[in-house]
Each structure stands twice: as C-alpha cells, then as structure tokens.
Write a structure and sequence with these properties.
The chain has twelve helices and nine strands. By secondary structure, it is of the alpha/beta class. Strand 2, helix 4 and strand 3 form a beta-alpha-beta unit.
C-alpha cells in the first residue's frame, strides 16, 4: 500500500515508526490536548519506537474521560445478502467491540439460501447481544428500514458486511453525538482494508471516505457550508458503510427511501438522501474520524465496473429526487456547476495514483460510471413507481 507522504518515499510497505512520527508531527496538538483532558502527558518528543511497542504489546486500554457516563445504547445494524464469508469477518470485528451498551441486528435481505443464517450462528453462538432477522423485500433501504424497526437503542449505527469495525468504533460514534445537542447523524472515517491492487487503489482515490482526520459538524448555517452544492454535495458527509442516526429522528423522517439503494433499480444513493433529509429537517451532522472502520474494496475489475455503474446511477437518481421537488429544485440547479467541478476534481485524483490502472481500464471504469449517471434519472422514476405500488399493496393488506 502507498505510505503516507514522508513515511517511506514511495509505494511499498509503510514503516510504522515513520508513520507514528508523522502522526505526532501533523496531529500533535490535538493529540496532546485530548490526552491532557484524560490526565495523560505526552512527552515533547515521544519515541515512536516506544509508542509502537506499547500498542503491539496490548497495553491496558484507558477509557476516554470525555465519554464517562455518556454511553447511550446503540443498535448496530448489518444488512447483508448471500455473502456469508464476508459477514463472518464482519461479525468477528463486532464481537471485539469495546462498548458496554449495544446490540447487533443482522438483516438477511431476500436470501436465496440459508448460508447467511448458518454463518451467523457459527460466528456468534449464543451471544444474546446478536440477533438475526430476515427482510423478504429486496433492496438495501428495505433492509435498513427493517433494522430500524428492530432497533432498541437510542442510536442506530449501520455498517456493511464487507467492513471490519475498529474496537472503539462505537465510542467514536458516541463522541460524535456528544459534540452538539442537535447532532442527529454521525459518520466516520472509512479506511481501506487493503490497497494491494491497482483496482483497489483506483477506488480509494475515487472516494473521499478516508481523506480527513479532522472532526467537523455540518448544519444549514451558510457559514458552515462545505461547498456551493451544500447540502447536496455527494460524498462530503460520509458513506452508508459507517453511518449512525438518532433512532427517534430517522423514524420520524420515515426511514430510508425504498426507491434508492443497492438491490433496487437505482443501485445506490439512499445514504446521500438521508444525509440531506437530516440537514433539511433542521438537525446537525457530525463527521467523527474516531469512529473508524475498514472497508474491503472490490479487487476484481468486473465487480468494480458494476459498482461504478451503481455509484453513477445512485448519484443522479438521488439528485433527480430533489430536482423534481419544488421545495429544493432551485437550490439544486444553482449548485450544479459547483457539483461538476467537484466531480472533475475527484476524477483527477485517480490519475495521480502512483500505480494507476492501465489507461484503458480507467476509461472503462469512467465510462461505466458515466453510463450509470445517464441512466439514473429514468431508473429513479421507475423505482419510485414500483415503491409506490408496493406501499399501496401493503396498505390494502
């Protein structure tokens, strides 16, 4: 994996001591202040070797004083479909969480066999914190909404089956909600589990899930706007792979839009949509890098091609939702030029990867994403009609 700037000089393994030195150099102020609040003094020039040795030796974990007494019950929801191998690794990470008051709900979305149930039972055994439920209606939003219905926590935290959570993930989420009383949504840093292939590096450069280690709170105050398309800037707020919401708030909003998301015609956009709805409803959204998870990117070209089509279709489907709404149409239209500039910047980042894929592969991936973007509006209208018919049938039963 490419090392951080100054931590090795080029592609190859990261020197851990150099990485620690870089972290202290760039983040030393906030680190020292946080440790001081916890009664710990960091030496003026800490020895990276000593720090690394302490971490690797499994030094006793000290809880963060800022969160003492502020540990709300959190319901973790993992939506999955026919990927028992990935789910097993995800559950292994969740079993290691250092947080006292949580539950895990695994939502098996329209399964075609019992592989997920078998993998769930083998992974968690009789641990009463973990529950398995089936959502027969296909689509990630339907699965997310089933998890919402099952949740007993004040906070509901979503992650994906191809994600491994950090042991202090839920502590980070709690920290995000504690930043302001009006925070109703927290997103976190999503690191790359592996960057061994050029395909994984391409995707990592394409998204912005791990580009910031600075916490931030967003709201509808123009002074806090991250760009001209606010609050519709795709990807700035985070991703559904690491997303937490106040349960009461998201229920009041009606849950996730079942015309958006993987497993529907639109293939994505449900997370971007919930971010916007949270903000437009007058709440704040906190990005909290301490809420850390690791995502396994697609390493197969065919799989990534399908994913890029879905990212493109989900993006424009979500934008069309707000274009057809008279209350938000003017704001979206005004922000389109800025949105196009933002997309161009993201595309240029993929060209700067030290070990970028061959030009023909990059053209193929960009073409698939563009094809998805062109198809997104029509797919959204089809999905919305299908969702409306399903709701009507449900109301008649």
């Amino acid at each position: 994996a490419p090392p951080p700037p100054g931590a090795g000089g080029g592609p190859g393994p990261v020197d851990v001591e150099q990485a620690v030195s870089l972290a202290v150099e760039t983040l030393g102020g906030p680190i020292r202040q946080h440790l001081a609040d916890d009664g710990v003094t960091l030496p003026a020039a800490p020895d990276p070797g000593v720090v690394v040795k302490a971490v690797r030796s499994g030094a006793p974990h000290r809880p963060c004083r800022r969160l003492a007494g502020a540990a709300p019950r959190i319901s973790v929801v993992v939506c999955t479909r026919n990927r028992p191998g990935l789910l097993t690794a995800c559950l292994d990470g969740l079993l290691g969480l250092r947080y006292e008051n949580f539950e895990v709900v695994v939502v098996d979305n329209a399964p075609t066999d019992d592989g997920t149930r078998v993998a769930f039972t083998a992974a968690v055994g009789t641990d009463e914190r973990f529950r398995y439920v089936v959502e027969p209606v296909p689509g990630l939003s339907s699965a997310r909404n089933r998890g919402l219905a099952e949740a007993s926590g004040e906070i509901i935290a979503y992650t994906d089956d191809d994600v491994r959570v950090d042991t202090d993930w839920l502590l980070g989420i709690a920290r995000g909600f504690a930043r302001r009383d009006d925070v109703a949504c927290v997103t976190g840093l999503v690191g790359s589990a592996d960057l061994a292939t050029d395909i994984e590096q391409y995707f990592d450069a394409k998204v912005s899930w791990s580009t910031s280690c600075a916490p931030r709170v967003y709201d509808m105050d123009p002074a806090n706007a991250p760009g001209p398309l606010h609050p519709f800037t795709a990807g700035v707020f985070g991703t559904g792979a690491n997303l937490a919401l106040r349960t009461e708030t998201v229920r009041a909003l009606g849950g996730f839009d079942t015309a958006l998301g993987a497993g529907t015609k639109t293939r994505g956009g449900e997370d971007l949509d919930i971010f916007v709805r949270i903000l437009l409803d007058g709440h704040a959204l906190a990005y909290e890098p301490a809420a850390l998870v690791w995502h396994s990117h697609r390493s197969d070209l065919e799989e990534l091609s399908r994913q890029m089509f879905g990212y493109g279709s989900g993006l424009t489907a979500y934008i069309v939702k707000y274009l057809v709404d008279p209350a938000t149409r003017r704001r979206v239209v005004a922000g389109i030029p800025g949105g196009l500039r933002h997309a161009k910047q993201l595309d240029s980042r993929t060209r700067e990867i030290p070990t970028a894929p061959k030009p023909e592969i990059m053209r193929r991936l960009r073409t698939r994403e563009m094809a998805g973007m062109l198809a997104g509006p029509a797919l959204y209208l089809q999905a919305r009609r299908r969702s409306a018919r399903a709701s009507a049938r449900g109301a008649q039963q």
